[in-house]
Amino acid sequence: MNFVAPDVNYYSMLPFITVLLTAVFATILPFYVSRKAIAGLSAVGLLVALAASIGLWNTNLSSFYGAYRSDNFALGFGIVLIVGALIAVISSVDVAKRGGTMQAEFFAILLYAVSGTMLLASAHDLIVLLIGFEVMSLGVYVLSSFQETAKSEEAGMKYFLLGGFASAILIFGIALVFGATGKFGLEAINTAVLSPEFKNSSIAAVGALFILIGFGFKVAMAPFHQWTPDVYTGAPTVVTQFMSVAVKAAAFAGFLHIFGLALQNVSGWQTPLQFLIALTLMIGNLAALRQSNLKRMLAYSSVAHAGYVGLAVLASPSQGFSSALYYLGIYTLMNAGAFAVLNVLSKDDDGLEIESLAGLGSSKPLLAATLTFFLLSLAGIPPLGGFIGKYLIFSAAASSGYYGLVILAALTSAVSLAYYLRPIGLMYFRPRVTVLPDFSGRSTRVLLVVCAAGVLILGLVPNAVYGLLELVKK
Amino acid sequence: MVVFVILAVLAIAGAIGTISFKSGIYSALSLVGTLLTLAMMYVTLHAQFLASVQVMVYAGAIMVLFLFVIMLLNESQMSGADPLPWVQPVAIAGGIVLAAALAFTAFQFKAPKNLETATAALQGGTPGAIGETLFTKFLLPFEAVSILLLIAAIGAVSLVHRQPAHNEALETTSEHATDNAYSDETSSNPAKVVA
What is the bridge-based pairing of β-strands A61-63 and A68-70? Predict the structure, then answer.
């Protein structure tokens, strides 16, 4: 037996290992130090990982024979995921003020989940990708049921059962793709599909459909979105904030990788994906119109945004990857920002009625102004970031010839103006009826201003960052 | 081929039994049947090590846990009226269509690799060959699975050890404060101020 030492390059995995080590410390240290110190430790660990990701930019390192790659795609998504987790950590500090204390394990599980999301974004191998997917999912299942309330438990249980079912379908799909090609590596699958000896196109197509269902569930695409409103509303608001940005971004990273690198030459999934996107855009936006609770409205809005980003999966990888990354970066800032405002304004984790926002503009000007910023950006109003993000994704899809879907996306995004503008109108043009609590600490106020500034900068000077992302193209 | 057909029929029968028995115990035992026939299939594929692991881990450890949980739960709780009666016929029809589609594609399968070289690489399914592959080619998934197990364990513990939500906290904080290692903040609960 001749033993070949495995190819391990720790340097390429620096951000991932940093997050993982912080998670291990956050698991052990709560026995000795206070919860606040753990929050600080988590934030510092995430910042170090952020610095490491920026330091590795353009180095294109890989490890484990290319199964783990720190290319700009993975690093860019890693930065988005770390920022999403940082926002959740900072927001969680305010939860203590309204009494719903997040116990110290919250940070450990959150960080493990982040390490799973980073693994998912960096994996170039179906098995590693699946494990990252599962680490992320398990973490979020636990976090969803973290409050001992009936609603939170229902959310966690529903997510766990349906998520387990979706994972089983995903694994079945991966097994079929492996059976058809005999490979796990994403590029190797594509090479096998293109080779003249390839004869299993129907099995690969069935496998691709199963994988599509698994990821469609995780990113909340209709008709696999039914869990989203209940889980997003029932879970603690900070967890919903993390789920709606980081889990979605990581799931899209895997989604783009599998369909852009491995299965782009397998036929049979493109038409179903178009139907899924069309359905998602219509159901997400129309259902959001009818919501009276802000948290549930944002849940349906995140379904709609899954439809917009889904267009990038259809587009050619050279344009789709970078536009999806740019969109998800902006989406992380604006959606997590909106949830952060919701978090400090609600007295418990049930969210708040949109009607009760009336008069907020005069009573809490900073919160009202930042929420206005985030909602306008989510609606895609220029010059904010959300507009540029939508523009990039729509143009990427249009240049691949999906004009009908782009028109539908533009129409539904016009419909979305109605539900995004209503809270803004209430905040500024109606007298105050209910007195809302304000749990925002200094760190949250700084966070909100930074997020709003980020949304504005990414919208005003898109070339500064998008120019860097051009490197994401292979 | 004859062996495969017998095993396949047994495995499918066990799977159907798992979902159609009303009693949880019978379902779990049918699942044991499926898992055991699967292990026998591994033996016919010259994967002896995998077969023994399948028997020990799945048919042994995991199924024992399943049976424990089923026996600990009151069985009458599980057999109530079906709250969504229309789902079952739709699910049966959908399952048959899906199974037919999968069977149809399965018959079109052409092995992507040369079977002789693949069988030679197995080295008779001994632990040595599996260990070598696991610690070289599949080292990253092998290590990453440990994160999965860790998060599952920590998640399970923290769910059992949850702090009650704010309103109930007022009644139970005093009991929790003594046994909870990090309840120094809970005892001076800000919930009291809010509530």
Answer: antiparallel
Minimum-distance CB partner of A4 among B136, B138, B191 = B136
Residue ending a domain, choose from B9, B42, B74: B74
Q: Are A67 and A33 in contact (CB under 8 A)?
A: no
Task: Give residues 153 to 192 of B whose Cβ lies within 8 Å of A.
Answer: 154-159, 161-166, 168-169, 181-182, 184-186, 189-192
Determine contact: B130 vs chain A, CB below 8 A.
Answer: no
Contact B151, A116 (CB under 8 A): yes
Provide the domain count of chain B. 2
* Helix (DSSP H) and strand (DSSP E) numbers for chain A: 20, 2
Is B168 within a domain? no
- Residues in CB range of B119: below 8 A, 6 or more apart: B46
Interface test with A, best of B45, B130, B145, B182 (most A CBs within 10 A): B182
Q: A424 is written with which tokens? A: 């803004």
In a domain, B79, yes or no: no
As given in the structure block, the two tokens for residue A313 are: 């999966």
B148 CB near a chain A CB, below 8 Å? yes
Question: Strands, DSSP E only, in A12-161?
Answer: 61-63, 68-70
In this predicted complex, what is the ipTM?
A: 0.90
Partner-chain contact A138 B148, CB within 8 Å: yes
Give residue B44's domain range: 1-74
Q: Tell me the β-bridge partners of A125.
A: A185
The model's pTM is 0.90
Whether B136 sits inside 8 A of A6 (CB atoms) is yes
Say which of A139, A183, A347 has its CB closest to residue B155. Answer: A139
Q: What is the pLDDT along chain A (474 residues), one digit of tens a residue?
A: 466 677 888 889 999 999 999 999 999 998 898 888 999 999 999 999 999 999 998 888 888 888 899 988 999 999 999 999 999 999 988 877 776 666 778 899 999 999 999 999 999 999 999 999 999 999 999 999 888 888 888 999 999 999 999 999 999 999 999 999 988 999 999 999 998 888 888 999 999 999 999 999 999 998 999 999 999 999 999 999 999 999 999 999 999 999 999 999 998 899 999 999 999 999 999 999 999 999 999 999 999 999 999 999 999 888 889 899 999 999 999 999 999 999 999 888 888 899 999 989 899 999 999 999 999 999 999 889 999 999 999 999 999 999 999 999 999 999 999 999 999 999 999 888 888 888 888 889 999 999 999 999 988 888 777 776 665 554
Cβ of residue B18 closer than 8 Å to a chain A Cβ: no
When scoring B107, B130, B140 by the number of chain A Cβ atoms within 10 A, the one with the most, hence best to mutate, is B140
